[in-house]
Amino acid sequence: MSNLTPLRTIAAGVLDVAYFETGPADGPPVFLMHGFPYDVHAYAEVAPLLAKAGCRVIVPYLRGYGPTRFRDEATMRSGEQAALGADLLALMDALAIPRAVLAGYDWGGRACCVVAALWPDRCAGLVSYNNYNIFDHSKALVPDTPENEQKLWYQYYFHSERGREGLARDRRALTKLLWRTWSPTWKFDDATFERSAAAFDNPDFVDVVIHSYRHRFNLVPGDPAYADIDLRLAAQPAIAVPTITFDGTDDGVRPPSPASVHAHRFTGPREHHIVPGAGHNLPQENPALFAGAVLKLVRGR
């Protein structure tokens, strides 16, 4: 089992971002963005595959994870999608990368979708697990089916102070439960989980996570610094860049949907694949498939 080390750190927007980089410095750049509750090691096998193919691969820790830190104590510990997208854009700017293939899932996929939708000139191609991943706040209070509502129990738990305390006190047990229920056929071992769970000891992890799931349901305000981005996202902007989307048949939190469900959100070339046996953490469960999708976009095929 390999670790993504050594890490580098760069000042990017409101963060000092810790990230792993591999591959030739002059290769086509690719950003790999992890989700909740995961970390950069979701790409422990994807990153070397891409580097071997000649890509410059950047794998950052999101705000609130691992060694990434806020640069100012006064900055709101927001987990809203506008902030995640702004963080990715700021990292691209800090690294002087004008355009890249963006790939991710869960929170990281959302960040990629935000940049692809609002700054398409910065995105050479998009790989997004769970399709169009920009949350529609106008539908936050529209109930889903009872079966799907049950899968979101952790979000409703985080709406309460009991949930905040539960995450703070039992973050490893809680997140390990999510790993198991979201990827029921993925047979990860304790060492694999602990390698990622260390990232949840970040001092801002709880605040960022709780804000994310409360803001998603319009229960708390967002960071005013991202109000303009949030307003643009409220229009559910279409994604025009070349895109490959995935769903997994065994995803325990986001059930798969046919390509037609999100077709109107993609105005450029798009492929959609439903992956048999895949859970929520696709890049770690099926790294060859995920890396192959990235390379297809890198090579323009």
Describe it for me?
- The relative contact order is 0.18.
- This protein is an alpha/beta fold and 301 residues long.
- 37% of the residues lie in helices and 16% in strands.
- It has one domain: Alpha/Beta hydrolase fold, catalytic domain (Rossmann fold, 3-Layer(aba) Sandwich).
- It has helices at 46-52, 81-94, 106-118, 146-151, 153-158, 161-169, 171-182, 190-197, 205-216, 227-234, 282-285, 287-298; strands at 8-12, 15-22, 29-33, 56-60, 69-70, 100-104, 123-129, 243-248, 270-275.
- Helix 1 packs parallel to helix 12 (287-298) and helix 2 (81-94) crosses helix 3 (106-118).
- The chain contains twelve helices and nine strands.
Residues in helices, as a percent range: 25-40%
CATH-defined architecture: 3-Layer(aba) Sandwich
Proportion of residues in β-strands: 15-25%
Shape label: globular
Write down the Rg: 18 Å
CATH superfamily: Alpha/Beta hydrolase fold, catalytic domain
Q: Note the main sheet.
A: 9 strands, mixed
Output mean pLDDT. 98
Any idea how many domains? 1
Residue runs with pLDDT of under 50 for 5 or more positions: none
Order of helices and strands: EEEHEEHEHEHHHHHHHEEHH
Structural class of the helix and strand makeup?
alpha/beta
CATH topology: Rossmann fold
Count the strands? 9
**CATH class group:** Alpha Beta
The N- and C-terminal alpha carbons lie at a distance of 32 Å
Q: What is the number of helical segments per DSSP (H or I, 4+ residues)? A: 12
InterPro entries: AB_hydrolase_1 (IPR000073), AB_hydrolase_fold (IPR029058), AB_hydrolase_sf (IPR050266), Epox_hydrolase-like (IPR000639)
Domain AB hydrolase-1: 28-285
Protein name: Alpha/beta hydrolase
Organism: Ramlibacter humi
